[in-house]
Amino acid sequence: GRVQGDTHLVKAGLNLGPAQLARDWQPFREITARTGAAMMLGHVHLPAIDPVQPVSLSRPLVQELLRKQWGYQGLLITDDLNMGAVYADGIDKASIAALDAGVDLILISYDPDQYYRAMHAATRAWRVGSIGARREAVSSGRLAAYWRKRASPRSGPRRYLRHQGRWR
To answer: How far is the C-alpha of 45 from the C-alpha of 118, rounded, in Å?
Structure first.
């Protein structure tokens, strides 16, 4: 609520440090610790943590703050890379930066052409070593563990049975 600007349309930032944001982040820390929920990273720029990249593409935020300081080892997904805050710099560059930062999944909605651009760029970057193979192996392990925890031996990933009002 304190961010001036809509990252769907433009780049936006918040000039506060981790200590000032700790209260805002507390619900996310509690819920992910208790439930193992995945966490979506928005495109807000926090210059006190990373002077260059927005949260969704930030290696310092992902590796230092979330993984080391918080101890969060769950799944991380970017917000939509078709949003104005990151799209203008190129969806290919954003995809590479997010994956190299240690984000597990990138979100690209409504435009299949952008998906192919992102996949091509990420594949090329991985082949030349711009995206760390070790980091991607760890991410692959997180994805597998996430789905193992949510799948029953018979039914695969859990589904919400709307007519029964419960998860299965």
So the answer is: 21
Short-list 25, 26, 27, CA closest to 46: 25
Other beta carbons within 10 Å of 98: 30
Closest alpha carbon to 76 in 18, 115, 121, 37: 37
pTM of the model as a whole = 0.85
Active site residues: 8, 79
Q: Which pLDDT score, from 0 to 100, does residue 132 have?
A: 83
d(CA 3, CA 133): 35
Q: Contact 39/76 with Cβ under 8 angstroms?
A: yes
Q: From CA 150, how far away is CA 4, in angstroms rounded?
A: 37
Please, which residues have CB within 8 angstroms of residue 75's CB and are 6 or more apart in sequence? 38, 39, 104, 105, 142, 143, 146
The most distant pair of C-alpha atoms in the chain lies apart, rounded to whole Å, by 50
Residues of the chain with pLDDT under 50: 155
